[in-house]
TrEMBL record:
Superkingdom of this protein's organism: Bacteria
Subcellular location: Cell membrane
Membrane topology: Multi-pass membrane protein
Database matches in PROSITE patterns: FTSK (PS50901)
Keywords tagged on the record: ATP-binding, Cell cycle, Cell division, Cell membrane, Chromosome partition, Coiled coil, DNA-binding, Membrane, Nucleotide-binding, Transmembrane, Transmembrane helix
UniProt-recorded name of the protein: DNA translocase FtsK 4TM domain-containing protein
Residue span, FtsK domain: 460-664
Annotated binding of ATP, by residue: 477-484
Upper taxonomic lineage: Bacteria, Pseudomonadati, Bacteroidota, Flavobacteriia, Flavobacteriales
Amino acid sequence: MAKKTKSTKEDKPSFFSFLKNRQTSTLVATFLMLFSVFLCVAFISFFFNWQEDQSTLQQFTNKAVKSNNLLGKIGANLSHFFIYKGFGIAAFIISFQIFLVGFYVLIKKKLSLIITTTNWNLFLMVLVALSFGFLDKKYALAAGIIGFEINEYLQTFIGKTGLVITLIFLFMAYAIIRYKVTFDAFIDRLKEKRAQRKLEALQEESVATTNKEDIIEEEKSKSISLEKEKKSEFELSLENLKPTISKYSDVSSKKEEIDKDTKNESEIKLKVEDKSDTKVNSSEEKVVAIDVEVSKEEEHETENLSDKIVKDFGEFDPTLELSNFKFPTFNLLKQYNESISIDPEELEANKNRIVDTLKNYKIGIDEIKATVGPTITLYEIVPEAGIRISKIKNLEDDIALSLSALGIRIIAPIPGKGTIGIEVPNKKSTIVSMHSAISSKKFQESQMELPIALGKTISNETFVVDLAKMPHLLMAGATGQGKSVGLNAVLTSLLYKKHPAEVKFILVDPKKVELTLFNKIERHYLAKLPDTEEAIITDTSKVVTTLNSLCIEMDNRYDLLKAAMVRNIKEYNAKFKKRKLNPNDGHQFLPYIVLVIDEFADLIMTAGKEVETPIARLAQLARAIGIHLIVATQRPSVNVITGIIKANFPSRIAFRVTSKIDSRTILDAPGADQLIGRGDMLYSGGNDILRIQCAFVDTPEVEKITDFIGSQKAYAEAYQLPEFIGEESGTNVDIDIADRDKLFREAAEIIVTAQQGSASLLQRKLKLGYNRAGRLIDQLEAAGIVGPFEGSKARQVLVPDFVALDQLLENEKNL
Ligand SMILES: Nc1ncnc2c1ncn2[C@@H]1O[C@H](COP(=O)(O)OP(=O)(O)OP(=O)(O)O)[C@@H](O)[C@H]1O
């Protein structure tokens, strides 16, 4: 059937079947090619003579009229028809196409190809005519009437710009569809050129190292593959009607050709590899190719979870809850006239007295220099050569007596200077205001953790110390010498520098009146025990509970530090801010806690060891976890400031005391008995003793500051300290299993896991109120899971693991 159809098709005489005859086809081809030459010549001649020939066009048959066109009247008329009336310059494409058709016929190209190229060239001709028509009218001949008219027509519809865009599109469409010009092809061509250049360069070098051969090989394969692509593209454009399979077979055959061609190029490599086979030159070493496999780099994450959280949410900001908190302003503090008045007469008189007195003891002076401070003037003496300092030191009291002035202190020698200092009080002392201390650059710019502006030194410099470094402070002084003012100066400094989120105070004030003003800032800055009304502690029994609670807080904080694997609160908070500690594991930002105890002697008198033990424990251990103690006392006797306390309070402040013994108790040195009072103090930070005039802050100023802070938005409640259950709350009563808390099992597991029997742990982990956590601990004790109450220490856990816990609870049920 198929066969039949085929034969009928073949039998039907085709329009172009005469071309099958080789003679006719050659004839037609020659005619077409010559005709195209004829047209081309006529067209060229037309451009030079068209104006003169215009009149001859109508008189085609008139022999008398001659045409200037090289090809006579026929040439002129044909040119007029194709160029003037037709497509202008683009008419040359017709001449070219006719030549091409003739050529294709001659070489027996397929008819389909002839038709396709003809169509494309006609399309191109219209496009070119259109483009020329776009030019000015004076170039009308370039576009021909058809080009011009189509142009005019289109311009009325899409305007000039529209036409330009359309033309660009049509030209691109022509190039893309006909020649397959694509962006990829363009890139490939560039690559091909580059590869070719590299190949040439490498060949020039002709260094036969294996490495380079590989590169050449690579480049070659690249160039081959590119060439392949190029060839196949070319095939496609010419024979785009060919079935795909034939195209592939072509490519493979071409590949072989290419391989042959490129054989020379790969000569360098072949030489190296063939060495062993040919054995032409035995002296040449055998090169064994080595296949190097580079192990893949392990992938690494550039950021961990905490970095990601910090990136997304920023660092943790502890001040966020009270982000609008405003620090107290300077104008809340009173300003005094603080310019130190130097009275030359006074200076001269004092100098003479010093010189005369020393002369009495046969001590000659080489030099004397005076430094005037706010309360005292320091006279620095350089004794004559040969005078032993110990002599002056021994005469200290006598000299002071001879100078017959209150508050004289002799420093022999001034540490690090080799001079002798004699401090003589000024007749007119100057008040050092808290304003000047707080507003000083030194304080404002300090980067300390807990900066305190204590006052001014003899050289009138603001004295700023870091409480966090102290780490605890002992303050002593007889009544009315400026202790309370000193405490207020410490607290005020911290209020001016630290956000409520960063520091919390626990204030113990047995006198009940000194620190009451700070009640106003309870929810900002104070810490207190749960379920207590007043944050400021005035009751001795509560002091004991608070101290023990603080010990629990200390233990809890140490646990947190341990879990966070850091050594101190600063590192811990930095880690927490960087979101490296998970709040779900109980981690939280830890504020510094400053415990201030006024009238410590009173406490020791009433509570004795009960107070001393936790204070000593805190003083010994609390520095790393941000709990700092400031203890003030009127009576610095040895039974108040015991050895164990003294040992843990390296920083001490002594206001004026009544006896040398007291001075020795507090400072381990005399001098405090020689002070003049009213804030005149000695500060010992370990080795040196400095004389400082304490900054003066009056009660109305403190009131203004606390009012200023108190009027601002506060936290919902004061900072909660962990509850401490006194011994009396420990229970031995058996609690009925049925009455147990629902969370009993969970609580037991937490306690066993942590191996630490504390109510605060349960509070944290189970998010419970203190009372419920306390009850749970009682129940756990009754069940024999935790041991009895042990004071400030966490209870012992009696069950080592879950297996033992399960067993214990199972046994209970069977009872
Ligand atoms: N730094 C100072 N500058 C000037 N005057 C001061 C200074 N410190 C204290 N004073 C004066 O001394 C008086 C008593 O001070 P303060 O109340 O601090 O004494 P105190 O040691 O606390 O006494 P007490 O132990 O009896 O409470 C103040 O009212 C003030 O006039």
